[in-house]
Amino acid sequence: MRLLIVEDEKRLALSLARGLTAEGFAVDVVHDGREGLHQAGEGTYDLVILDIMLPGMNGYRVCAALRAAGHDVPILMLTAKDGEYDEAEGLDTGADDYLTKPFSYVVLVARVKALLRRRGTSGASPVRVVGDLRLDAAARRVFLREDEVALTTKEFSVLEQLVVRAGEVVSKADIMEHVWDFAYDGDPNIVEVYVSTLRRKLGAELIRTVRGAGYRLDAR
Q1: Contact, 207 vs 216, CB < 8 A?
Q2: Residue 2 and residue 42: Cα distance in Å, rounded?
Q3: Which helix (H) or strand (E) holds 34?
Q4: SS3 for 66-92, per residue?
Q5: How far apart are CA 194 and CA 198, in angstroms?
Q6: Would you say the C-alpha torsion 179, 185, 190, 191 has a positive or negative sign?
Q7: Cβ neighbours of residue 31 closer than 8 Å, sequence gap 6 or more
Q8: CA 16 to each of CA 2, 45, 107, 136: distance values in angstroms, whole numbers, following the listed order
Q9: pLDDT value of position 31
Q10: Nearest to 140 by CA among 159, 123, 121, 124
Q11: For the chain, is the Cβ count within 10 Å smaller at the N or the C terminus?
């Protein structure tokens, strides 16, 4: 899943990005409220971590603007302030949760995962079945028939994109956008490498190549 961190404390933002990347998320970081609004408004994120005290536009205004534009992305607000008024204002503008600095990184990760689970269970089940393949997004586990298949975090994320859109053609660009952050400047053929490893682990016939278009996950 793809997360956006809008935080002007650069050391904190970098630390959070590194930790969340290690958890298997694709993470983008911006340090300005207006840029955060622009990025989040693109609609490509599964969750936004939003500081309140930001240059350009504060987090309250960013959150309110996103909600007014119809974006329902989960928003976790961060602030150095403490008090019922601040929390109420943040939630009133449309934030889904609130965390006061200093906070435990473990708590932040738990809040992020809880918000993502909540969003998942409000619509589709976090467990998706495609033929003999079963993917549990909450537990990040994959089963082929009755056998669990061990995947790396990136392999899981690539497969998840294909499973969510099973039967549809998913382009390399779509996979790159959701699995790697926008700062990635490596070889775009990295997607082919991960698809190749998934085929070795899950069976060559499961993921079809649609020439010039992308990949399609077929049920079997």
Answers
A1: yes
A2: 12
A3: helix 33-40
A4: HHHCCCCCCEEEEECCCCHHHHHHHHH
A5: 6
A6: positive
A7: 6, 7, 8, 10, 13, 54, 55
A8: 14, 16, 12, 25
A9: 95
A10: 159
A11: C
* Cα dihedral: 172, 176, 177, 178 (round 10): 110
**Which residues have C-beta within 8 Å of that of residue 83, sequence separation ≥ 6?**
none
Strand pairing report for 207-210 and 97-100: unpaired
Under the banding of pLDDT at 50, 70 and 90, the label for residue 47 is very high
CA angle, residues 122, 153, 124, in degrees to nearest 5:
15
Torsion angle, alpha carbons of 74, 33, 77, 75, to 10: 0
Cα angle 190, 139, 102 (rounded to 5 degrees) comes to 90
CA distance 14 to 28: 10
Q: How far apart are CA 89 and CA 184, in angstroms?
A: 36
Q: Over 80: is that where the pLDDT of 88 sits?
A: no
Any idea what DSSP says for residue 213? Answer: T
DSSP 8: S
Distances (CA, A) of 34 to 16, 101, 102, 111: 20, 22, 24, 25
Helix, coil or strand: residue 39: helix
Q: Count the neighbouring beta carbons within 10 Å of the beta carbon of residue 182.
A: 16
What six digits make up the tokens of 6? 């809008």
Contact assessment for residue 53 and residue 80, using Cβ atoms and an 8 Å cutoff: yes
pLDDT higher than threshold 90 for residue 35: yes
